[in-house]
Design brief:
This protein is an alpha+beta fold and 382 residues long. It is built from 9 helices and 18 strands. It has 2 domains: 136 residues, Creatine Amidinohydrolase, Chain A, domain 1 (3-Layer(aba) Sandwich), CATH 3.40.350.10; 232 residues, Alpha-Beta Complex (Creatine Amidinohydrolase). Strand 8 and strand 9 form a beta hairpin. The radius of gyration is 23 Å and the shape is elongated.
Length: 382
């Protein structure tokens, strides 16, 4: 499927209209007659409207050759920013049948693609309404390749989100965020407040893992008190709204409360070299798996191969994790407009954990990290 970076029109209405045009082209290429988008990331990406996950149906009905209609509960309609150049809004009342409304708006439909996160109760009712002559596919088969290649507005949004996350990371590295004597949960909440203060609409996660807890990559911050002499891993990100759509940040930096043990310092030097090597090879045309290998091979050569237990990265955009995935076995070549994390880690169970993460944009001029704050293991006073 074609997935070229669009030129962009310079205005928000042009941006959304252009995305609808790209989706219709993808529908034609995949033989999709109707696209149905409910809760999940596809809907705000295409319309600028983020549906609440209610028991009432919200659904964009997009026939390939017809007008698009956003079906919403009447009480939710005031939340919709109308974009008549792209779609009409059709509210329904509490006693109306939204399934029947969607079916009537869809028209003839031999093949329907429905967004991946549509609730099963709605999918089953829709399948019954469309009948046995309709085949069904995942909406991501239409939208996924398009969303993976960011347009100019999206690239700017990711730069803004990355710069805001950098400002918080800089505060962490500069000792402005108290660590020793506080719980992981307290520091996590502090990071979240600072993300919002730097322009994020919401916090998606703020991992704070001290000492041995950092050996668990997705550790849940708790009542563990951070102590002097420990290394603390902080992985945090949120959603920043730009031109009506939210885009994600994601960054990881480690700090040491006092000089780290030699074992940790040596492992971090390996990690930093591996992360920089992976960023450097993330050029347009390079397979995603080669970026993973650039980091993994260096870590393995230093004797830590069994301590790197996850992929090197994931795509990012309106979701924290989306295509493309930087992992062994993914031979997809990077394209201009791809945005992804590069985040190798080294974990010593029961002792410590280290991870270093930037968001990187693939461009015609080479890899562009949107996170540029110091990559060294910051040593601050306990």
């Amino acid at each position: 499927m074609a997935s070229k970076v669009p030129t962009g029109g310079g205005t928000v209405p042009d941006m959304f209209a252009e995305r609808f045009d790209r989706v219709r082209t993808a529908m034609a290429e995949t033989g999709t007659d109707v696209l149905l988008l409910s809760v999940g990331p596809d809907l705000p990406w295409l319309t600028g409207y983020e549906a609440m996950p209610l028991e009432r149906l919200t659904m964009l009905v997009l026939p390939r050759d017809g007008d698009a209609t956003l079906v919403v509960p009447q009480l939710e309609a005031p939340r919709v920013v109308e974009r008549p150049e792209a779609f009409a809004v059709r509210p329904f009342g509490e006693t109306d049948d939204p399934i029947a409304l969607v079916r009537s708006l869809a028209g003839p439909a031999g093949r329907v693609a429905v967004s991946d996160r549509t609730w099963a109760r709605f999918v089953l009712d829709l399948q019954a309404a469309f009948g046995p002559g309709t085949t069904w596919a995942r909406g991501s088969q239409v939208t996924g390749p398009l969303r993976a290649v960011k347009d100019p507005v999206e690239l700017d949004a990711l730069r803004l989100a990355g710069a805001a996350a950098d400002r918080v990371a800089r505060q962490l590295q500069g000792g402005e965020i108290a660590l020793a004597g506080r719980t992981e949960a307290e520091v996590s909440a502090d990071l979240g407040r600072r993300l919002v203060a730097e322009g994020h609409a919401r916090v998606n996660f703020a991992i704070v893992a001290a000492g041995e807890n950092a050996a668990s990559p997705h550790h849940e911050p708790g009542e563990r008190v951070i102590r002097p002499g420990e290394v603390v891993l902080c992985d945090f990100g949120g959603t920043l709204v730009h031109e009506g759509v939210g885009y994600c940040s994601d960054i990881t930096r480690c700090v040491s409360l006092g000089e780290p043990p030699a074992e940790v310092a040596e492992a971090y030097a390996v990690l930093q070299d591996a992360q920089q090597a992976a960023v450097a090879v993330a050029t347009v045309g390079t397979p995603c798996e080669a970026v993973d290998a650039a980091a993994r091979d260096r870590i393995a050569a230093a004797g830590h191969g069994d301590r790197f237990i996850h992929r090197t990265g994931h795509g990012i955009g309106v979701e924290e994790h989306e295509d493309p995935y930087i992992v062994a076995g993914n031979a997809e070549p990077l394209r201009a407009g791809h945005a992804f994390s590069v985040e190798p880690g080294i974990y010593a169970p029961g002792a410590w954990g280290l991870r270093l993460e930037d968001i990187v944009l693939a461009t015609a001029d080479g890899p562009e990290p949107v996170n540029v704050v110091d990559h060294a293991l910051a040593v601050i006073e306990a």
